[in-house]
What does this fold into?
Amino acid sequence: MASSSEIRESFLRFFAEREHERVASGPLVPPNDPTLMFANAGMVQFKDVFTGKESRPYSRATSSQKCIRISGKHNDLENVGVTARHHTFFEMLGNFSFGNYFKQDAIKFAWDYFIDTLGLDPERLVVTVFGGEEGFAPADDEAAAIWKDVTGFPDERIIRCGAKDNFWQMGDTGPCGPCSEIHYCLGLDDIDPRTFGEEPAADGRGWFELWNLVFMQFERHAGGRMDPLPAPSIDTGAGLERIAVVKQGVLSNYDTDLLRPIVDLASEISGKRYRASQSEDDVSMRVIADHARTTAFLISEGVFPDKEGRAYVLRRVMRRAIRHGHRLGIHEPFLHHCALRVVEDMGDVYPQLVERRALIDEITQQEEERFRRTLDRGLQLISDNKEWIDAGGARSLPGKVAFKLYDTYGFPLDLQNVIGEEQGFDVDHAGFDAELAQARQRSQGSKVG
Ligand code: SER
It folds into this structure.
């Protein structure tokens, strides 16, 4: 069994030994990039290197990148805690070639690392290649042939997929290209490639993606036009949490050494036993563990919870976590304990966490104290409106109430959705938007949030 620190280090060492520059993670908040709210992949800090706008003294790099996927093209928020795999914050291991090597070497490196270094069982793997789609690129027969040669796989284990899965782009604009993914079959005795693509079981059994190799060839511009990059390049990304699942012999990312200690802390504070199930309590503990990581990392980069933009995204995440703690019966501020656990566990890899430890502690406590003051009143407001919610069998929280919860009590809309899911009602989003627009007009165009 390998710890996540050992896996991270073995990955970076493997590529350093193959002439890749070890580059520290870029920040979560990409500097001077209005197209992206948070770094959502390892390639983000190299975006301009791919397009030729920036040059570096190396043409091969490797990194372990802090990523957040809560907004824009890649948004995993609703699945967090519910599935075994989704996170708002995660670490992406990657190797990059800036006009240096291309498909042949990228595929060979990935295979050698997985099979020879990590010791994964090739019988449990399948690969995918881009099957071609109008408006993107033709089918990637070249990648399919290389995979066949490198792995010795029969055709049924080299699966062709459409642009949705096998054409990667960072956002609406930026470098992009067809990709190939390596998928792993976890926890099943009968490994049948024909079952690939079926939804994994809630406990995490089944096929899931481990590594994505992007063959960067184009830059997409606003309006959709794609131009070729100065040189074909490579961008790969493998989720550290997912590799840890495989190497640590567990089914869920939340049972790896990256997340389980925070889940256990939530369990200890709430006095509720964690059973690694789909029960509401267990989902809540997983949400808290995930959101505590996002909280600690964003505050360490100087993002503080507030009303707009990134600050508001952080506030939503923190308030969701606090609400889940409240649901578990935790009556005192607790999220800062979980965030400090993140500092303890990851501070050696990301020293900014240690440098900003006091700030993480203080800001998290303050936000929780502030929100707790209104949480009970807001929940009361929902229960007072039960009549409305139930009226006509529609079970919908009226837009007016939703807006009051948001505006007066600081309940972000998606938190209302979470409560609605638990209590079995929808939120009238259109009504909410109308109220919001009116409020904005009243304040003569100044932003409410
Ligand atoms: N950019 C690709 C991804 O995020 C590979 O790193 O999957």
